[in-house]
Structure formats: structure tokens, C-alpha cells
Specification:
The complex is a heterodimer.
Chain A (H helix, E strand, L loop, with lengths): L6 H4 L11 H5 L15 E7 L5 E7 L1 H4 L4 E6 L29 E2 L5 E7 L2 H9 L2 E6 L16 E6 L2 H7 L2 E9 L11 E7 L2 E6 L4 H12 L6 E4 L15 H13 L3 E4 L2 H4 L9 E9 L5 E12 L13 H4 L4 E10 L13 H19 L3 H7 L4 E2 L4 E2 L5 H12 L12 E2 L2 E13 L5 E7 L5 E4 L9 H13 L6 E4 L16 H26 L13 E4 L2 E4 L8 E2 H7 L5 E7 L14 E13 L4 E12 L6 H20 L30 E6 L23 H13 L10 H4 L8
Parallel strand pairs in A: 1-12, 10-11, 14-15, 21-22, 28-29
Antiparallel strand pairs in A: 1-5, 2-4, 2-6, 3-5, 7-15, 8-13, 9-10, 9-12, 13-14, 16-17, 18-19, 19-27, 20-21, 20-26, 23-24, 24-25, 27-28
Chain B lengths: L4 E4 L3 H8 L3 E3 L5 H6 L7 E4 L8 E3 L5 E4 L4 H6 L1 H6 L1 H8 L4 H6 L2 H5 L57 H8 L2 E6 L2 E6 H4 L18 E7 L7 E7 L10 E10 L2 E10 L6 E2 L1 H7 L6 H12 L10 H18 L1
Parallel strand pairs in B: 1-3, 2-3
Antiparallel strand pairs in B: 4-5, 5-8, 6-7, 6-8, 9-10, 10-11, 11-12
Helix pairs in contact in B: 5-8, 10-11, 11-12
Classes of the chains: A alpha+beta, B alpha+beta.
The structure holds flavin-adenine dinucleotide and iron/sulfur cluster.
Chain lengths: 748, 329
């Protein structure tokens, strides 16, 4: 095809390309959801429940309604015109099934009970403080122990007879691990600006999935889909918390409809801890059976995950368990435990991140029990094929990840005894853990337009949540046309564009590549046809397949680009407004070849910690992350994803935990001063390596995804390093000073 | 936030005349925060930022006079402070963030309020809200049976266990600073140890200031000849977190024996915690690990722990032991 000769421009695929939207962000010109302002715009502030369970006995808005500038107080007494979506029986997903203000019931602390809309933000804030709500209070259930649950449990992935195998296994590990509630806390807080024009609604959102958002909002508001437009051009990250709409979208839209004025509603940092999702607490019991020489004979992974009272959210901790290791007997069971908390949401690497903390910690404990090197144990039990689905892997190089990481961190010099390694007066601990995450090719549509001004436009209703999706599109356009990046315009984050995928599951890159490529290839084919059919064109009468496009020019395949003409000249000669083509990505699950394989990415983290027992100070000093995520399309953005995920994993291991007050059910540490995330000063030396083996089953570029996998395994690598340095095994995250004070490794 | 009136005071006398039952505002890093949370509801704010209290001057006695409006960062990086009062410089730099330190003032830091999460809840001390004796005397204390991991173990009462959060104040306690104030009744000085109050049964009374009194200066006595001083702060993360335990030590060793020691602790007390017990355990003793540990044991002997903060006792002991080692090395 025409693009065969584009070797030079094509090398942009896989290069380290700075984000094309970078300057917009660093100069403050990128407009995020609540940066939008319109004439007549008014401000809404939500009132939160101050109890964790109960009923609203009375709600008195009379004082607020009389306050200066207040236009509307919305609550369960006057809310109307909203509908439910039915979970799992719908083509869209919402975060909280209960529409806001549906009734007088309170299910979790902080639940929105009223909304005050006023001319200014200050007036709305004052109005919100003046709404008097009284409650019939009940004691909320926010118990952290989930193991008292007696309800139904779902069994999955069962093979062989794990119980029998465990009973007869010569070596058994049986331990429980837990991970706390963690809060996403992206920099940009959730917010919505809603504007109506007659029957049509435009929502400025921070959505990780504008297409899904549109469908949900149409259903919730009871209006046709085509009357809703959702725009999310820039998103200050989401980490999963912005995948599906939250009540603030509904409230902004409803109040804007009632007032017939644009409404802006922001969720503040405190509300971020109660109203817009979290990673639910997990409690996981892992049982491993093994032979004395370290061959796994059984794995049982029985876990509980917390969810809200009304939403069925499961943190699928056992997703990686069936295929990470080779093992004949296995079962995973799940129990979903209800608590008076807001709806959980997927958070970076949902399931895999807590799940692999448990499984990989147990593997470390097994290695210790066997007196075996944990690296050797991993290599010995590495799975050659996916024993869960009984399919070959499309591309799995986990062993190479381990061996590369071992080399980099100097694993050979590691002595296994806790507290046996020292450097500069500190104890050193080294640990490792594996990671995995699913891959797939999800549907996507994109259009490409070759423009008469010499620019290339590409359009898709997916969105860039800060990961580099804009740049990926531009790279493909550049690779195929040679048009420089600064003459490529990428339009994303708008439902008026061709339907694109939700930015979730680390699947956007692998989804957009085929659609964008097919669109640009078709556009080039049309361009070359037109070049041969247009009377004024120098290529008039030539055979299209003797022509090509490179460096933005049409030229004969056997001649240099300089011999040809800029592509836009032909468009102008033919009096066209542009040449457009649309490309589609067909899903991997409809691809018979892809269906024969297990599609997953893999990786390993090697962590080193330093322990100063004299002051009970533990810090992570180095993390090497070696990843097998298919071909990396943008090395810079790809490495950035793994680095960020490693830092988040460090926070998970050592710092993060949302604590609910047992009496009120309130997340009591809901601020950036009290909920600890890693700061720059906490960062170790971070080193990312990509193996970069293309996975051509997933798409023609061989790209899988990198967004989530980097967080999996970090906590287990760190806690095994913590054990190695301090002799303390922490099975309940985060690792706290309280735990470390138990260490018997004292004299440095 | 409640409506308030705002005055910019051009002189100390105007500031004193204008404040009434209102509040002075310096850097605003504590006050504005607490006003947004409805914890503070002053009817009047008197902005004192233009008062001539922003200098650091040498005193004839050899000490140092610090104006109440000297910013935390300017104080921390002042050459005399770095050279002669290292403990103070280190304490300041361990606190907050560079941006906050650029705004925060000496006077404001002295008067910053606890980070107790219940105290900071907008509805604390009101019907239906958390009990908080500091907010509304007599309502109780939600922290006693609540999440109290960061709360104090020294100087507590059954009415309040809130930690005094300041780092700077811990260093000043060890340096035996003197606070100068000026009020409707004139000028007076307050010894540092007498400035902050333990909660007892009046946790809402936090310090010795009379209504309407303005902090004007903090004086540091002349540096102790031959002494070294160190501040060490322990916390979960490496930066931007209040102390779980900290220690300020000024010590002098002669012939292997401790001839002078002043010890104060942070993160564990309801006020910047001067430990006379530790000082007594150090006086005249050989400067060795056993002495340091004994002093730490003495310092924490009176500790009273709650459900989540028992670890602070051992952490504080290790913190003080290490600080003593560093200060006497
Ligand atoms: C996120 C965060 C993290 C922080 N971390 C730390 C930390 O790790 N360690 C630490 O020590 N501190 C920390 N702080 C607290 C910080 O040090 C204080 O907020 C600051 O010192 C207060 O000074 P200010 O000038 O801004 O005071 P303001 O907010 O202006 O005033 C505070 C109080 O003092 C009164 N006041 C101010 N000046 C005078 C005066 N001259 N006379 C009488 N009354 C006066 C005011 O009326 C008010 O009541 C942190 C603060 C924040 C917000
Ligand atoms: S510890 Fe003190 S400040 Fe905190 S809730 Fe109790 S009384 Fe209030």
C-alpha cells in the first residue's frame, strides 16, 4: 500500500514523543470542565449528609431560599424528572444507581441531600450552609472486618480439587491479606458545567468516557441521546474514578433545566473522599500448596470486597490468579460485603492491584517456608499457557522481566536472611513481585481529514485523561503522511465526534491505533485517486498505485518526496473542502484468531528499602520495573505511566488509607493534609524497562496497554523488601510505623 | 465562612484599638483555613502585615529578637539562626511546605491550632456534630473513642487529647524563648513555658494571651556557649506532614559528661512539650546510649495512650534518643 516507503516518519511509532498537548497544559490554556464559563452561568453547591445512615426527618430550606442571590434549593421534596438506569441491562454504566435525592434515605456519610444554586459561588456556599437538615439517625456499618460476612460467595476458575490438594500438600501457606479503602484523588476534582439550549443539553465534564456519559445522562434525564453532548477535552487525570457518571452530573443538568441557565457544580476535595468512588477494602485469604522442591500443587484465593448498600461493585482480586502460575488445582471465591459507604469505583488496576498484593505476598512467604529463592520459585512455576482459559498466551515474557530485573538490582548479591544486608549504616531489604493485566482490542471509530490548508485533522470521541492519547493519534498521522506533528490537529473528548472508547482498562491505545490507521490509509488512497483524476494535477492519468505520500507530499514511489507536490495542492486543485475517511477497530472478541489466545501484559517490580531501626524510619530507595506490554508506541508517555503507577503503588504500600469514623461513617482523614499520598521527597530512584515485544494478535502495531499494570505488584515487592530488611511481615496495608516498631532487627 | 469586617492596621496602636473581639491576621495559613471550616468566626479581621514587626535583630544581651511578622522561611534561613540556633532553623524547615513557610509568620505559628480532625469538622461542638470541648466546652471529646492515631500522649486530660502541631514551638521551648506581647493593658513578657496551656478541663483556653493582646516579638536568649542543638522530626512520609514525634535538644558535653541539656518534644504533647524529666535524667550523666535511653524513658513516663496512638510512646523515645546522640556527638 501507499505507505510502504515511509520508513523515516514511521519511526515516530515507538519513539519518545513529547505530548502535543503539553504546552497547553503548562501554559494554563487547556480548559478543564469547570474552567468553562458562559453568560448567565450560576453556581451550585451541594449539601452533604452529616450522618452515615438514617432518614431525613426534616429539611428546612426556607432560610437558604431567602438568602441573597439564591435561585434554587433542590432536595428530595422537589426533585423530579430523573430516571434510573438498570444495572447490567443497559448499554451504559452509571456509578451510583440511585438517582440523587430519590427519597429521604441516607446510605452513607456525605451523601448529597440538597443543592443550592445561586448567582455566585459565595452565595451558593452560604446558602448551602443555611440549609437545615435533621435526621433520624441509625448507626452506620463501616466495620473494616469483612470476614464476618455470611452471605453467598461466588466461585470461579475452579480446576482440579484444591481442597484435597491442600490437605495432602507437603508445604502449605495459609495467610490473609487486606488492603484498605483508598481514594483516587486526581489533581482535578470532579465537576460539571451544564448548559441547555432548548431541549438540547451540553455537559462539560471530566469524564473518562464521554460516549457512555452521554447515554447515561440521556437515560437519567429522559431525553433522546442525540440531544445530549458531552465534552471532556482535558482531564486532570481520573485513575478510574471518572469512568462513569456521578450524581453531580445529574444535579447540574437538572438544576440548569429548572433555571434555564448554565450551572456549574464542583465536587470539593473533602467530597472526593465520600461521593465519587474509592477502591474498596479487600480481605483475601490465600492458601498455597507446594511440593518440597517448590512446585505449586494448589491455590485457593478466597476474598471479600466491600461495596456500598445499593451498588454491586466487586473488586475482582482473583482475576490474575488462574493464569499467573502453573498449578493443577485452583479456586477463587468472592464475597461482596455491604457497608454504609459511597459506591466504590474502579481504581487503577482494579482487582489486580489488591489481588496481586495478596498472591505475590503469599508466594514470598512460600519461598521463605521452602527456603527457596523467591525469584527461583517464580521461574519454576511460570505458566507456559493460560491454565484458566486453557489457551496459549499471545505473548508472555514474564520470565525475562524477572531475569532482567534481577540483573538490574543485583539480586545475586541478596542474602535471604532478614536484616542481613547493610549499606551506609542502614539495613537494606530487596523484594520482587510479578504483575499482569488483561489486554483486548475494543471497538473504536475515528475519522481523518486531509485539509486544503495542509493540515491533518483526526477526530474521535475517546478522551485523553492525561496519558498521551492526543499524541498517539498524531504519531499515527505523522507516520502515515509525514506531515509534521505541529500540522496535525487531534480532536477528542466530544460526543459529536465519531464514537470512541472509554479510557479504562488500559485499552485505548490498542483500540485507537487500528481505527486511526485505517482512516488515514483510506484518506490517502482517496487522495491519490483524486490526484490521478484531477485535470490540473501533475499526476493526472498516472496509476494511483505508483504514487505515495511522504513528508506531506504526493510523489511517485520511485522518486524522492521533493519531486512531488504538497498534498493540499491536489485538494485545492479539485476544489474540495477536504478529504475525509472513517476507520473502525473491530473488537478482539469478534476476531476468531484473537479468540484462540489469552491476551495479557506482564511485568515485574524489584524494590529496595532502607531501614533505620534507631528511628523506625523506612524509605523505599530503588524500584526497577520491567514490563512486557507489547510494543510501546510512545516511550515517553509509556514510561510516564509506569513511573506514576509505581509511585501510586508506593503510596498504597506505605501511606494510603481512608479511615471511616466508626460512629458517623465519615471518612475522617478526608484532606490532603491527613490522607497521605507519596510526595516527591518519598520517591526512590525509579527505573523503567520495556521489553517491547510486539503482540500482533492484539493489533497490527503489536501494542497492548500500560496504564494500570504498573501499579500491580508494587506493594507486594515493597512488603517483601520490608520483611527482608526488618523481619516484619505486613499483611494489612499500609505498612505503618506501628508495624515496623515490632522489628527485632535493631542494631545498625 | 461567616461575614466579617476587615481592617488593615497601620500601627500597633491602631491594631490594638481595632481588634475588639476579632482576630489579627498575619500569614492567614491557619486562620483562613479555620474560617472556611467555620471553626473560627471572627467578626473583625485586623490585618497586621504592614506593622513594623518583620525584623530579626541582635539584642545587647547577645540574644536575638524576632519580630512577630518574620516569615518562617526568612527565620529559618537567617545566618544567625542557622549558626547559633540550628534547632530552630531545622524545626522550621521540617514544617509545612516552602509555599506555606513563605507566608507563615512567627506569631501565627505560635498560635496555630490543633489538627485534630474532629475539631476541624465544621459542625463539631454543635448539636448533631462531633463532641469537641475545645470548640464548645462541655460537649465532650469525639477523639477519645474515635480515630486518634495522631493525638497526644502527654499533657492530655479526659476533656481533650489534641496535639499541639507546631515544630517551631518545640525548638523555641528548648531554647527558652521569651514572648513579648502588647495589649490594651500595655506591654508584658511571657516565658515560653508559660505561653501554651495544657487542656485540663478548659481545652478551649490554649494560651496565656489576654483578649486583644498582640504578639510583638519573640526573644531568644544568648546562645549557650559550647552547646549544640538539633531538631529531629519523625512522620509517615518524608515531607509535608505534621510530626508523629519530634525532639528538640540543646546540649553541651564536657569531658564526656552532659553539662547542659534542654529537651522539648513535639507530636506527642498537648503543648510544645518541655521535658524537665529528661533534662534531670541527663544532668551530669555520661553522654552515652544508656543515658539517652534513660532520659527518653523519663520523658515518656507519664504518657497516656489511646486506641490508635500507643506507638507514639516508643517512637518518641527513639526520636529523643537519636536526637540526644546527634546533639552530643
Ligand atoms: C497544609 C499545612 C501543613 C502544615 N504543616 C505544618 C508542619 O508540618 N509543622 C508546623 O509547625 N506547622 C505546619 N503548618 C502550620 C503553619 O506553620 C501555620 O499555619 C503558620 O505558622 C501560621 O502562621 P500565619 O502567619 O499564617 O498565621 P495566621 O493564620 O495569620 O494566624 C494564626 C493565628 O494566630 C493569630 N495571630 C497571628 N499573628 C498574631 C500576632 N502577632 N499576635 C496575636 N495573634 C496573632 C491569628 O489571629 C490566628 O488566630 C501547616 C499548615 C498547613 C495549612
Ligand atoms: S481532642 Fe480536643 S480538639 Fe479533638 S475532639 Fe477532643 S476536645 Fe476536640
Amino acid at each position: 500500500m501507499a505507505t510502504d516507503t515511509l520508513s523515516q516518519a514511521a519511526s515516530v511509532i515507538g519513539a519518545a514523543v513529547p505530548r502535543i498537548d503539553g504546552p497547553l497544559k503548562t501554559t494554563g490554556t487547556a480548559r478543564y470542565a469547570v474552567d468553562h464559563d458562559f453568560p448567565g452561568l450560576v453556581h451550585a453547591v451541594a449539601v452533604q449528609a452529616t450522618v452515615g445512615k438514617g432518614r431525613i426527618r426534616s429539611l428546612d430550606a426556607s432560610a437558604a431560599e431567602k438568602m441573597p442571590g439564591v435561585l434554587l434549593v433542590l432536595h428530595h421534596g422537589n426533585m423530579d424528572g430523573v430516571y434510573r438506569t438498570f444495572p447490567h441491562q443497559d448499554d451504559a454504566t452509571i456509578s451510583e444507581v440511585r438517582p440523587p435525592f430519590e427519597d429521604d434515605r441516607i446510605y452513607y456519610w456525605g451523601q448529597f441531600v440538597a443543592l443550592v444554586v445561586a448567582e455566585t459561588l459565595e452565595q451558593a456556599t452560604a446558602g448551602a450552609a443555611a440549609v437545615r437538615v435533621e435526621y433520624d439517625v441509625e448507626t452506620p456499618d463501616v466495620r473494616t472486618d469483612l470476614s464476618t460476612y455470611t452471605g453467598p460467595r461466588e466461585s470461579s476458575w475452579k480446576r482440579g480439587d484444591p481442597d484435597k490438594a491442600l490437605a495432602s500438600a507437603p508445604v502449605v501457606v495459609d495467610e490473609s491479606y487486606s488492603t484498605p479503602v483508598e481514594t483516587h484523588n486526581p489533581m482535578e476534582m470532579h465537576g460539571t458545567v451544564a448548559t441547555w439550549d432548548g431541549d438540547s443539553l451540553t455537559l462539560y465534564e471530566c469524564s473518562q468516557g464521554v460516549v457512555n456519559h452521554r447515554v447515561v445522562m440521556a437515560e437519567v434525564l429522559g431525553i433522546p441521546r442525540e440531544n445530549v453532548r458531552v465534552i471532556s477535552r482535558f482531564i486532570g487525570s481520573g485513575f478510574g474514578g471518572k469512568l462513569f457518571p456521578w450524581p453531580q452530573s445529574t444535579l447540574a443538568a437538572v438544576s440548569a433545566r429548572k433555571l434555564n441557565r448554565p450551572v456549574k457544580l464542583s465536587v470539593d476535595r473533602r467530597m472526593m473522599f465520600s461521593n465519587v468512588g474509592h477502591r474498596p477494602r479487600t480481605q483475601q485469604r490465600i492458601r498455597l500448596g507446594a511440593t518440597p522442591d517448590g512446585k505449586l500443587t494448589a491455590i485457593r484465593h478466597d476474598f471479600f470486597t466491600e461495596t456500598s448498600m445499593l451498588d454491586d461493585f466487586v473488586e475482582h482480586c482473583g482475576e490474575q490468579t488462574p493464569f499467573l502460575y502453573s498449578c493443577p488445582n485452583l479456586e477463587v471465591t468472592t464475597g461482596m460485603v455491604r457497608r454504609n459507604v459511597g459506591a466504590p469505583a474502579p481504581m487503577r488496576g482494579p482487582g489486580a492491584v489488591p489481588g496481586l498484593f495478596a498472591l505475590e505476598s503469599a508466594m514470598d512467604e512460600l519461598a521463605i517456608k521452602l527456603k527457596m529463592d523467591p525469584l527461583e520459585l517464580r521461574l519454576k512455576n511460570d505458566a507456559e499457557r493460560d491454565e484458566g482459559t486453557n489457551r496459549p498466551f499471545s505473548s508472555r515474557h514474564l520470565k525475562e522481566c524477572y531475569l532482567t530485573g534481577a540483573e538490574k538490582i543485583g539480586w545475586k548479591t541478596r542474602t535471604p536472611e532478614p536484616g542481613s544486608m547493610r549499606r551506609d549504616g542502614k539495613f537494606i531489604g530487596i523484594g520482587l513481585a510479578g504483575a499482569s493485566w488483561a489486554a483486548a482490542r475494543i471497538p473504536c471509530t475515528a475519522s481523518v481529514e486531509l485539509c486544503p490548508n495542509g493540515r491533518v485533522c483526526v477526530r474521535c470521541a475517546t478522551q485523553d485523561i492525561g496519558t498521551g492519547t492526543y499524541t498517539i493519534f498524531a504519531q499515527v498521522m505523522h507516520a502515515k503522511t509525514g506531515v509534521p506533528l505541529d500540522r496535525i490537529d487531534v480532536f477528542l473528548g466530544d460526543t459529536s465526534l465519531p464514537d470512541g472508547p472509554t479510557s479504562g482498562g488500559s485499552m485505548v491505545t490498542s483500540a485507537v491505533l487500528p481505527a486511526a490507521t485505517s482512516a488515514v490509509n483510506q484518506a490517502i488512497t482517496r487522495l491519490l485517486n483524486i490526484a490521478t483524476l484531477t485535470a490540473d494535477s501533475p499526476f493526472h492519468g498516472a496509476k494511483p498505485d505508483t504514487l505515495t505520500v511522504s513528508e506531506g507530499r504526493i510523489h511517485a514511489k520511485d522518486k524522492p518526496a521533493s519531486s512531488g507536490i504538497p498534498f493540499e495542492n491536489v485538494i485545492r486543485m479539485a476544489s474540495l473542502s477536504g478529504i475525509t475517511a472513517t476507520g473502525r477497530t473491530s473488537p478482539s472478541w469478534e476476531d476468531p484468531k484473537a479468540n484462540q489466545y489469552s491476551l495479557h501484559s506482564f511485568g515485574a517490580h524489584f524494590a529496595e528499602v532502607e531501614w533505620e531501626p534507631e528511628i523506625a524510619r523506612l524509605r523505599v530507595s530503588r524500584i526497577f520495573s520491567i514490563f512486557d506490554c507489547g510494543r510501546i508506541i510512545n516511550k515517553k508517555a509509556g514510561a510516564n505511566q509506569i513511573l506514576g503507577a509505581a509511585v501510586m503503588g508506593l503510596g498504597m504500600a506505605l501511606l494510603e488509607e481512608t479511615v471511616h469514623d466508626p460512629r458517623s461513617g465519615q471518612p475522617i482523614n478526608g484532606s490532603f493534609a491527613d490522607y497521605l499520598v507519596a510526595t516527591c521527597a518519598d520517591l526512590p530512584d525509579l527505573d523503567v524497562t520495556f521489553l517491547d515485544y510486539p503482540d500482533l494478535i492484539v493489533n497490527e502495531y503489536g501494542a497492548r496497554g500500560v496504564g494500570e499494570i504498573g501499579m500491580a505488584g508494587v506493594a507486594a515487592a515493597i512488603t517483601s523488601a520490608v520483611y527482608h530488611a526488618t523481619g516484619v511481615r505486613v499483611r494489612e496495608l499500609p505498612v505503618r510505623i506501628e508495624d515496623l516498631l515490632q522489628s527485632k532487627i535493631l542494631e545498625a | 465562612m461567616q461575614t466579617f469586617s476587615y481592617i488593615k492596621a497601620a500601627s500597633i496602636s491602631k491594631a490594638l484599638a481595632g481588634v475588639g473581639s476579632g482576630k489579627f491576621i498575619a500569614g492567614g495559613t491557619t486562620l483562613v483555613d479555620l474560617m472556611k471550616l467555620n471553626v473560627e468566626q471572627p467578626a473583625t479581621l485586623v490585618d497586621i502585615n504592614v506593622l513594623p514587626l518583620d525584623k530579626i535583630e541582635k539584642l545587647p544581651t547577645g540574644g536575638l529578637r524576632i519580630g512577630a511578622l518574620v516569615r518562617n522561611s526568612d527565620l529559618a534561613w537567617h545566618p544567625d539562626v542557622k549558626a547559633s540556633y540550628a534547632v530552630l532553623s531545622q524545626a522550621l524547615l521540617s514544617g509545612a511546605s516552602p509555599q506555606l513557610r513563605n507566608m507563615a509568620t512567627t506569631g501565627g505559628n505560635l498560635l496555630q491550632r490543633t489538627r485534630c480532625a474532629y475539631f476541624r469538622e465544621p459542625n463539631a461542638g454543635t448539636p448533631g456534630g462531633y463532641a469537641c470541648n475545645k470548640r464548645t466546652p462541655g460537649t465532650g471529646c469525639a477523639a477519645l473513642e474515635g480515630f486518634n492515631r495522631t493525638h497526644a500522649v502527654l499533657g492530655t486530660s479526659d476533656h481533650c487529647i489534641a496535639t499541639h502541631p507546631s515544630d517551631m514551638c518545640v525548638a523555641m521551648a528548648a531554647l527558652e524563648a521569651v514572648i513579648h506581647v502588647e495589649g490594651p493593658k500595655g506591654k508584658r513578657t511571657i516565658a515560653f513555658a508559660d505561653f501554651h496551656k495544657v487542656p485540663g478541663d478548659t481545652p478551649h483556653l490554649e494560651n496565656a494571651l489576654e483578649p486583644g493582646e498582640l504578639v510583638t516579638y519573640v526573644d531568644l536568649p544568648r546562645p549557650v556557649e559550647g552547646a549544640r542543638s538539633v531538631y529531629l522530626k519523625l512522620r509517615d512520609r518524608a515531607s509535608y506532614e505534621f510530626a508523629l514525634a519530634s525532639a528538640a535538644v540543646v546540649a553541651k558535653v564536657e569531658g564526656g559528661h552532659i553539662r547542659y541539656a534542654r529537651v522539648a518534644m513535639g507530636g506527642v504533647g498537648t503543648k510544645p512539650w518541655r521535658s524537665h524529666e529528661a533534662e534531670a535524667a541527663l544532668a551530669g550523666k555520661p553522654a552515652n546510649a544508656a543515658t539517652f535511653r534513660a532520659a527518653a524513658e523519663a520523658a515518656l513516663a507519664g504518657a497516656k495512650t489511646r486506641s490508635d496512638n500507643a506507638f507514639k510512646v516508643e517512637l518518641a523515645k527513639r526520636c529523643l534518643t537519636r536526637t540526644l546522640k546527634l546533639a552530643t556527638a
